[in-house]
Amino acid sequence: MAGSDAAKWLCVILFFTRTCPPASPAFFLPFVRTAAMPKPRVLFYHAHFFQASETFIYQQAINPWIEPVLVAKHFSGPSGLSVQGFAQHAFRRTGWDGLAGNILLLAGIDRYYQPASARALATLIEAQQPDVIHAQFGFNAVRLLPVVQRLRLPLVVSFHGMDASKMLRSRAYRKGLEEVFAHASRIVVCQPAMAEVLPLTDRQKQRVRWIPYGIDLHRFAPEPRTQGPVARLLHVGRLVHKKGVADLVRAFARLSSPAELHLVGTGPEEPRCRQLAQQLQLGDRIIFHGWKTPADVKALMQQADVFVLNCRTASNGDQEGLPVGILEAMAMALPVVSTRHAGVPLQVQEGVTGTLVAERDTEALAMALDHLVTDAGLREAMGKAGRLRAESIFSMPQMHQALAAVYREAMEEHTTAT
């Protein structure tokens, strides 16, 4: 690792060691030079590669330090997230698997693949000759565990949000995770607090690695902004309960200064939000854009003045992990208004790169937005600070090297054990 890179990583590690104490002394992995080593062949397992709302998985798969292989039930690359160029193999369970799995779930046993399908999937995976298997989301690790045990390969499992929040309410899922953690070589979390809610023993916590998502800072690079007639507020994210979009509409209605609210995303809350906008007589001040490509999102961020994400814990327990939209907004030099929820306080430096309010505090949210709408100088200062923070902590090359080091750790530990 070059001297400047080493110095940058030392600063990152010191910063988070002081501000965000890890769950265990081994929480931070050693970052090692891997250029002289052959690339590990990493098999990524998920139900669907790549979904538009899961850009973070795509960004992990394009890691230049590894040779990726994809195994999934579905493949469909939305614009900007193409599956082309990846070695990809489709596998579907049988109807019997589903029937038997549902019966077992009633007994508190989470078994997605029955023995015949597990053997077939093991044969498919073994033919790819992976060095390590990376299960995306905890529930996929539970599904894949019998196959991994059969193949005796090192397993890395990543947690992203709902798999470390609402799904933990399921007794069968928690039991399945306990079995996964007894076998997994490394457990990757996108924000450290996950290690405290997952059913990990103290010894298993030593295998946890916090690796924040990384953004393509070349793609998300801002250009000089021009002042529009009114401030433009931008939300990017699915229109679901944990995003708090309905309350964002209510907060927007309270602003004392003229502004526009641009909502990017689709979801079950959209009809409710549209109806609410009509009831509050917000007219064309709220623009529903629907789903947009990454290129479209970048263009809208370039045109925006403030990024807002009103996160909260949903009624079913669902939580965010480390919202990628906030990282992209920071990279685009936008000030961020959000909530003290999940990993958001690790992203947004309060009072420096943005403003955070309590979950479900619509009045405080409106005040925070009003403050930025009326102060262009503050918007610019916070936006510049956010870009610097993204460059120093949340870049894609940093994430790639950290993951490559995790794979090496898993492989070396597995070789020693066998």
Oligomer: single chain
Number of helices: 16
Q: Compute the number of structural domains.
A: 2
- CATH fold-type name of the largest domain: Rossmann fold
Examine the secondary-structure arrangement and name the CATH architecture of the largest domain. Answer: 3-Layer(aba) Sandwich
Question: What sort of overall outline do the alpha carbons produce when their principal axes are compared?
Answer: globular
Radius of gyration: 22 Å
Query: In percent terms, what proportion of residues is strand?
Result: 15-25%
Averaging pLDDT over every residue, what do you get?
A: 91
Count the strands? 15
What do you see in this structure?
This protein has helices spanning 3-19, 55-61, 95-106, 115-128, 138-151, 171-183, 194-197, 202-205, 245-253, 270-279, 294-303, 324-331, 344-347, 362-373, 376-393, 396-417, and strands spanning 41-45, 48-49, 67-72, 74-75, 87-90, 132-136, 155-159, 186-189, 208-210, 231-236, 259-264, 286-290, 306-308, 336-339, 354-357. It is built from 16 helices and 15 strands. α4 (115-128) packs across α5, α5 crosses α6 (171-183) and α9 (245-253) packs parallel to α10 (270-279). Residues 1-34 have low confidence and may be disordered. The chain is of the alpha/beta class and 418 residues long. It is globular. It folds into two domains: 3-214 and 395-417, Rossmann fold (3-Layer(aba) Sandwich), CATH 3.40.50; 231-393, Rossmann fold.
Keywords:
418 residues, alpha/beta, Rossmann fold, 2 domains, 7-stranded parallel β-sheet, 6-stranded parallel β-sheet, 16 helices, disordered N terminus
